[in-house]
Amino acid sequence: MTESALLEKIEKALWASENRKIRQANELFRAIYSTISENPLLLWNNPKLYLLGKAFMVMYHSDAFDSEEQNVALAHLSMAYLQRSEELYKTDESNNDSDVFFEILRVQAVLLKTCEDCFIDSVSIFYQQHSQMVSDEEKKGSLLLAQRVMIYVLYSVLVEMTDAFDGFKGDAFLDEVCKTIELENPSISQKLVKEGSNIRKLLYAYSKSKIMNGNLVF
Q1: What does the domain layout of the chain look like in residue ranges?
Q2: With the C-alpha atoms ordered 89, 90, 91, 96, is the resulting torsion angle positive or negative?
Q3: Quick check: pTM over 0.90?
């Protein structure tokens, strides 16, 4: 499948989902997943890659698949493609479409808010010693750390949005999420925001490595 053909399929799937044409959307989503499973780098350098990231998030919430393993993969692929899109946007000096950049960050924030549990096992790996066998106690501790840090991973995206756009462009969902985080965590420090940002980068490196190797199991 060509890049343009895949993008057309993605746009049709997103349109069908937004217009509650669930069967049509899910058929298209499964075809998209199949194509990416065979060639995960097909849109890797395409400036519209963020649409694939968005499609995988919508795919997750549409219950297109019954497999928990596939659903976890959908969340990871969504995040990785969105982060790659952010990378492409920031390195392309000719790209000045701020609406696209806002959408890239917005979908990341929604994904991290609504699919948080999908990332905990992967993030826990970053808190484990890699030079030795990991005990059950250490695994339990790393999972707790991962659960605690995910709110700061999300918040780091929200901070990036407010820095870039001086707010959320009237997006009520993001505004409410941000206010709730700040209300429940009144002592968020720059160190914690940095920790969240670093985990986000590690998550990208982890997922990118798998995509590059054609291994879409997370």
Answers
A1: 3-212
A2: positive
A3: yes
